[in-house]
Structures are given as structure tokens and as C-alpha cells.
């Protein structure tokens, strides 16, 4: 579980540092938008009250605390799952990255009432109206990593996916 917690803490720290640095260090909160590598990358301030792409977006306290509760329940479930994946290094890192991102967005919801999104990417003449953050990338990457690296046979790691051999009894 050491890899899991290192990945979770590193992801959480990177997410929170990037948000604070861009929002307050670069004053994106007041500037609204900063061209970084236009049109491909802009820092564009967005207050996300919902989930990805603003889905389920309500500015009510019930929705806010409901999304916090859902994120915490899913995080607890992933922690439980990763405890069963002992010895599966890439799955543990993937789970840690996912948890670090999820908890980064939970902290935003508690501190601000919304999630701070600031990365906006567009390409090929198509302007993307949506913004995201490091936590969103981590949640997506962690989930994909879990799909590819976790054991799919339902057995705890450590057996190499092979059933344990029964010991022979000698009379």
C-alpha cells in the first residue's frame, strides 16, 4: 500500500499546488483567461459546481455535499479494493492517482463550494468550451489504469492468479 499512498499524496499535492498557483499566483480568478499556447492551451477560470463538463451542476448545498459524499464513498471503496491488490504495483499506483485526484476535488468543494477548473485545450479549429484540472486528469488516468492493471479474476493478488495447490496427505 506504500505505492498507493505515495501516488495519492503526490497527486493531491500537485493538484492543489497547480490550482493555487494558477488561481492566485497568476491571478486567474480576476483575469479570467490567460493564453499559454493559443489556441491549443489556455488557462480559463471555471467554477464547476457539478461533475465532468458541468453535468449535474446545481449551486445548492445539497448537491455540493451530495457530490462530496459520493466522492468519499467511492474513495473508500477504492481504498478497500487496493488493499486486496497487494503486490500489484501498477494497480496500486493507479488507485492512488485516482484517490489523490478525487480528494483534491473534494477539498475544492469544501473550501470554495465548487471545483476550480482552469485548463482549456482546443485544436483543429474546434473551440472547446470546457475546462478541467489536474485532479480530473488524475481521476481519468487512474480509472483507466485500474481497468488495465487490476486483477480481473476476483482473487486477491499474491497468488499470481493461480489457485493454491492442496497439500498431499501422507498416511
Fill in the keyword field for this structure.
5 helices; mainly alpha; 12% strand; 54% helix; 171 residues
What does this protein structure show overall?
With 171 residues, this protein is mainly alpha-helical. The chain has one domain. 54% of the residues lie in helices and 12% in strands. The chain is built from five helices and three strands, in the order ααββααβα. It has helices spanning 2-25, 28-31, 61-84, 89-112, 134-149, and strands spanning 33-37, 41-48, 115-121. It has a three-stranded antiparallel beta sheet. β1 (33-37) and β2 form a beta hairpin. α1 runs parallel beside α4, α3 (61-84) runs antiparallel to α4 and α4 packs antiparallel against α5. The radius of gyration is 20 Å and the shape is globular. The protein starts with a helix and ends in a 22-residue tail after the last helix. Residues 156-164 have low confidence and may be disordered.
Give me the secondary-structure topology:
Layout: H1 2-25, H2 28-31, E1 33-37, E2 41-48, H3 61-84, H4 89-112, E3 115-121, H5 134-149
Antiparallel strand pairs: 1-2, 2-3
Amino acid at each position: 500500500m506504500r505505492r498507493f499512498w505515495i501516488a495519492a499524496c503526490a497527486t493531491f499535492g500537485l493538484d492543489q499546488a497547480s490550482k493555487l498557483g494558477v488561481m492566485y499566483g497568476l491571478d486567474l480568478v480576476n483575469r479570467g483567461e490567460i493564453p499559454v499556447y493559443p489556441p491549443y492551451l489556455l488557462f480559463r477560470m471555471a467554477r464547476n459546481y457539478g461533475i465532468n463538463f458541468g453535468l449535474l451542476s446545481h449551486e445548492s448545498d445539497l448537491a455540493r455535499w451530495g457530490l462530496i459524499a459520493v466522492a468519499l464513498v467511492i474513495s473508500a471503496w477504492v481504498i478497500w479494493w487496493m488493499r486486496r491488490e497487494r503486490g500489484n504495483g501498477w494497480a496500486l499506483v493507479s488507485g492512488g492517482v485516482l484517490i489523490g485526484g478525487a480528494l483534491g476535488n473534494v477539498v475544492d468543494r469544501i473550501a470554495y463550494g465548487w471545483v476550480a477548473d482552469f485548463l482549456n485545450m482546443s485544436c483543429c479549429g474546434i473551440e472547446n468550451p470546457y475546462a478541467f484540472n489536474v485532479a480530473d486528469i488524475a481521476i481519468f488516468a487512474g480509472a483507466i489504469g485500474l481497468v488495465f492493471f487490476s486483477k480481473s479474476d476476483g482473487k486477491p493478488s499474491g497468488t499470481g492468479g493461480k489457485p493454491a495447490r492442496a497439500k498431499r496427505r501422507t498416511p
